Amino acid sequence: MKRRQKQLLKSRKFPKSAIYILSLLLFVAVWWLLSVTAFSKNGVLPTPWKTLGRFFEELGKPKLWRGVYSTLSASLISFAVAFVFGLALAVAAHFCPPLKSFLEPLITIVRSMPTLGVTLILFIFFSGRTSAIVIASLVSLPVVYQNMLAALGGMDKGLLEMARVFNVKRKDRFFSVVLPQISEYIFSALIAGFGLNIKVIVASEIVAVPRSALGSYINGAYISGDFFMMFVWVFAVIVLSFICEGIIKLVRLFCLPHKYSARRKVASFFGKIKNTLRRGKVQ
Amino acid sequence: MIVFRNVSFAYPATQVFSDLNLSLEEDRINCILGPSGCGKSTLLNMLSGDIFPQSGKIENAEKRVSYVFQSPRLVPQITVLQNLDLILKSVVKDKAERRKRIVSALELVELENSGDMYPVQLSGGMAQRVALARAFLFPSRLLLMDEPFKGLDVALKKSIIGAFLSLYGREKKTVVFVTHDPDEAVTLGDKIFMLSDKPATVLAEFSVSEKQSERKIYDAELGKIKNEIYKISENR
């Protein structure tokens, strides 16, 4: 029996998407159970259906979209800053080992900074929104730096030698040999870094309370004791993170076709049609 | 004819060549046979212009060379067609012309239906055939081959050698084929140079007159050369 179960688990009878949905359903079930048992009396935790209903109601109001715009734009700006600096530092560190050693303790310090404490310090000098952007950039920077450094270190030197021997132009060498190799790490950095970035932005917004931001809404609901709305805003942040991660993964699927068999099949299928049409034209 | 004249080369801790003299025949397959670590790959690196002799000179060295490496070295993130197009781009500007040449090269290695596949979808033998097609697609007079059949099973080796000979039959190049396998050397080489241990010198030279496609590994002439090779190896 156990053997059969193992075989079933190993076989492809459980598609990835089914497991994904199962995991989400489990999360909702636990949430529902807690809301009707442990937290049912004081009403701190609303049920998933109530939260979802209110969330959909908010979708029709401009307040939510203003908050999403503010939080998302802050997140994009801070991540772009972290990405540019992280990439530049990684390239410099890759080609200059002493710089890599020099940066190591600094990166460790940045990585272990207490997010909320630093936000409060920054809040003395900057506005709420700027503080959130600066702290989120600082938190994402080590993630981008480490991933880019790993990408540059893990490049296949044999492929670079091949490109050199066959006199491949510098431009083609970068776009066809170097970039495809580091793109996997770029996407890893995007997925890990951007998810973290949104969380930090919202946390900083809760502390620094800029105008019309999801974090500020959470703070406002907490202060006014409206726990139900607090949950709705937290739920909105989760949905936003989910959508952003989904978009990045979708882009990755199309940018790295060699990694994903489904995308490969689609590419091969259209390639064959293109070839057939081309042959038809020649004849 | 490419001639190594009194070539010496040393890495910081080892003298690889000391007054090496060698004449590689034009438009023929020159086999460099020698024990592991004797400097065969260093010799190829000199021919590719990667490193230069510290004394002596290489006469008539080619500026543009093709290379078949031990592993296929295909960019995994792009298709077979794109891999081949990558090395042609710098020499052939017309896209349609490049496409025509690539399709014809793939047909010669019997991979005409694999152009849209990614290297990860190819078997080891298929990938090495693409590497061969790439080497012949690149317009050069000199082809360097660094143990391209190492680690392949007999049937696969035979099929890849067949693909190589059909490409070579269509377009003659000066081939420098490095191996440590006497069977491969007598099967493919028109000229076989046997190198000694470091600092490497030419221990013996053999010529095989028979055409590669007509050679049988159990031929008397080839057997004689192989025996000589083994004898020299034992006395080394």
Shape of chain B: globular
Average pLDDT rating of chain B: 88
How many H/I helical runs of chain A? 12
CATH fold-type name of the largest domain in chain B? Rossmann fold
Which spans of chain A have pLDDT < 50 for at least 5 consecutive residues? none
Give me the CATH superfamily of the domain at 58-155 and 182-254 in chain A: MetI-like
- The number of domains of chain B is 2
* Strand content range of chain B: 15-25%
Question: Biggest sheet of chain A, in brief?
Answer: none
CATH third-tier fold name of the domain at 58-155 and 182-254 in chain A:
MetI-like fold
- Overall geometry of chain A comes to globular
Mean pLDDT of chain A: 85
Q: Please give the radius of gyration of chain B in angstroms.
A: 18 Å
Can you tell me about this structure?
The complex is a heterodimer of chains A (283) and B (236). Chain A has 283 residues and is mainly α. Chain A has a domain of 171 residues: MetI-like (MetI-like fold, Orthogonal Bundle). The model of chain A has no long low-confidence stretch (mean pLDDT 85). Helix content of chain A is 84%, strand content 0%. Chain A has twelve helices and no strands. Chain B has 236 residues and is α/β, with parallel strands linked by helices. Chain B folds into two domains: 160 residues, P-loop containing nucleotide triphosphate hydrolases (Rossmann fold, 3-Layer(aba) Sandwich); 73 residues, no CATH class. Chain B contains seven helices and nine strands, in the order E-E-E-H-E-E-H-H-H-E-H-E-H-E-E-H. A six-stranded mixed sheet of chain B has the order 5-6-7-3-8-9, sandwiched between helices. A three-stranded antiparallel sheet of chain B has the order 2-1-4, with no helix packed on it. In chain B, strand 8 and strand 9 form a beta hairpin. In chain B, helix 4 packs parallel to helix 5 and helix 6 runs antiparallel to helix 7. Chain B is globular and about 50 Å long. Chain B starts with a strand and ends with a helix. Chains A and B meet through helix 8, helix 9 and helix 12 of A and strand 5 and helix 2 of B.
